[in-house]
Amino acid sequence: MTFLEFYNTILNISYSSYNELPYLVRKVHFKKGDIITDYDQIEPHVYFINKGIVELVIKSYMTEKVLDFFFENEMVSSLTSFLTQNPSDVQMLALTDCELEMISFNELQQAYKNSPDANKLGRIVIEQAYIRKATREKDFLAKTAEERYMEMFQTHAKYISNIPVNKIAKYLGIHPESLSRIRKKLNS
Length: 188
Hints:
This protein is α+β, with helices and mostly antiparallel strands. It is built from seven helices and eight strands. It has helices at 3-11, 79-84, 105-114, 116-142, 145-160, 165-172, 176-187; strands at 26-30, 35-37, 45-51, 54-59, 64-70, 75-76, 90-94, 98-104. The strands form two sheets. The protein has a four-stranded antiparallel β-sheet. It has a four-stranded antiparallel β-sheet with strand order 2-7-4-5. Helix 3 (105-114) packs across helix 4 and helix 6 (165-172) crosses helix 7.
């Protein structure tokens, strides 16, 4: 899926060209391990993932913690930084080679002034981001690591093999050895 297809699907319209969109969308590629947005950088873009996996991490007391993984056909950004235009407290990394489409903050702000469709899409994307974050917080409080891993496996099975075990463990908030036990239990 491309951003144009995503735009058409979400808004139930049928633009045939990127020229019809209310903002400029540029394609960009990142290699595995590239930093997309670094700590203390002001996030200048919001991205749509055509191909690849993006990891969002935050510095913790002793180490970095994985906040989330984003996959194909999803929007991603250092959202707080993007919305406030303040330095990011998170880092976005290309976990695999990535093909992204990006919209700049300034382009988006201009489109919000002139396009009801841009406003509607922006609202929907922010609502989805909030629901995703709230669901993750609730899951952390109410579900075991095994249940969270099973859900991750069920919803993103085709990507799991591309994510190192230690990163999945960090995402689940457990040690890699505990994840190995969970995986062994589920495979037996």
